Amino acid sequence: MLKRLLIISLLLIFISATNTFSQDTKQRIKGPIVVTSETLTADNNAHTALFEKNVVAKTTDMTIYADTMLVYYKEEGGEVTKIDATGNVKVLRNTRVITSQKAIYYADEDKVIFTGEPRAVDGENVVTGSKMTYFINDDRSYVENSKVFLKNKKDK
User: Fold this and answer.
1) CB of 35 within 8 A of CB of 54?
2) What residues does 106 pair with on adjacent strands?
3) Most CB atoms within 10 A, among 20, 38, 119, 125?
4) What is the CATH code of the structural domain delimited by 2-149?
5) pLDDT (tens digit, 9 = 90+) per residue, 71-119?
């Protein structure tokens, strides 16, 4: 009985954590991105921009920190197609914090893959694994080799 309750609680927390990505939020992720760093190397032939040292990328509802960030974009219009963040990656969104050594955002698939000791923290609840994939369009996550730590809340 206790095991079943724990599994149900885990599913509810995981579902509620991923449900914060509503339709409006999906549109905001595709909205303007402001990236700051100490250095920028732009390669117009390769359609890339390499941001290095103290990189911070902000959208209307999310902030990403990394040591380096390689942004790929389309030739026409400059639309971002892929973001490759490496080194001390930290994503802040609402009450959630995800850390890893590497994160890759694929715009065409609207997914983010976290590797290198990924760890997601929402309040006092923690999920770790060897690889975390968040599918934004489907509003679901997939964690390989997962380990979940839930903080029990006492009834008031």
Assistant:
1) no
2) 82, 111
3) 125
4) 2.60.450.10
5) 999 988 888 899 999 999 998 877 889 999 999 999 888 889 999 999 9
